[in-house]
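Example A, followed by Example B.
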Amino acid sequence: MAPAEAAGNRWVAMESSRLELNLVRLLCRCETMAAEKRDPDEWRLEKYVEALENMLQALKAQASKPASEVINEYSRKVDFLKGMLQAEKLTSSSEKALANQFLAPGRMPTTARERVPATKTVHLQSRARYTSEMRRELLGMTLSHSLKMADQNLEKLKTESERLEQHTQKAVNWLLWAMLIIVCFIFISMIIFIRIMPKLK
């Protein structure tokens, strides 16, 4: 092998390792950003993931690329981050939780300092967050449904109490008239009885 060719191969290997190093750094940064609570309008993570995809494609295209297991692990982590971003764009928390279940986090830590892969931690955090959001939505829906039912029951109760009051007033009116007629009848009967019957001596 000629010295110029050897130097060229060394430069390609250096360039490949530099690209892989940059990919790992950006991947670590993306995993850190994904683990943090972000503003919904945050755009940087999405752009970083796009850059990760481009770097991964460039790494796959190089002649001196890492082992296929390593590239597959990088692809899995990038796909996970992409899927997580797509899941965050969904409207309801149940859709987000369902989409999150189908995401596959990385199997190996990105750096040597990690004990558990950061994507697995992010996956668990997002699952917990979406579950919490679903509970809040469900609680809110339950409360609003309960309040609506309580309002409907209150209206029905008011209507029924008014009807009951009218019925009781009618019943009291009829009872009052019946008692008045009975008292008058007894009074007239007593007067007639007193007039008809002579005084006993």
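Example B, a separate protein, is given below in the same form.
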Amino acid sequence: MNIFRLLGDLAHLASIIILVHKIQTTRSCRGISFKTQALYVLVFVTRYIDLLYSWISLYNFAMKIFFISSSCYILYLMKYRFRPTYDPSIDTFKVEYLIGPCFLLALIFNYRFEWTEILWTFSIYLEAVAIFPQLFMMQRTGEAETITTHYLAALGIYRALYIPNWIYRYFSEGTVDPIAVVAGIVQTGLYLDFFYVYVTKVLQGQKFELPA
């Protein structure tokens, strides 16, 4: 494994740990989009279906189990344990506008027309846009708690690190994954406005507020 892939995985782990820590310490899921978290569960379940029939390594197995279980745990916290703190009236992005097109793209643009490959491709497309409900919620409220922005920053760094990972793999292994590359660039691009505000305000000790 190259260093960029490892750092990306660590950033992804950090994002989930930050989010769980935020919910448990504040005993609130205020400002967190349940819909985005549900989409991530769908992403991981469809991507890691190979857990049922293949073995790659202990690291690979552990990471997949962690991402699936931790994402389901976050849904549990939001749906049951701290449900009164979740406000569905501001989490209104219609996820069917994401799921439907992503599945259609997976049927059309894939490497092999097999159900496992289609599910994997679907998960790649869906992960690229799964953050939309969260960003839409922040756009509606115009602000976010600092710890929530740290979660999103770690998530964005995770995806951004996969770009040098792909470049490294191209020069070291001669392999290119066009589907993952295009989806990853789209996903990274969605964070650009967020990172601008994060760097210019949050890292300067100011409150995260979107421009009017």
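On Example B: Residues 77 and 83 are 7 Å apart (CA to CA).
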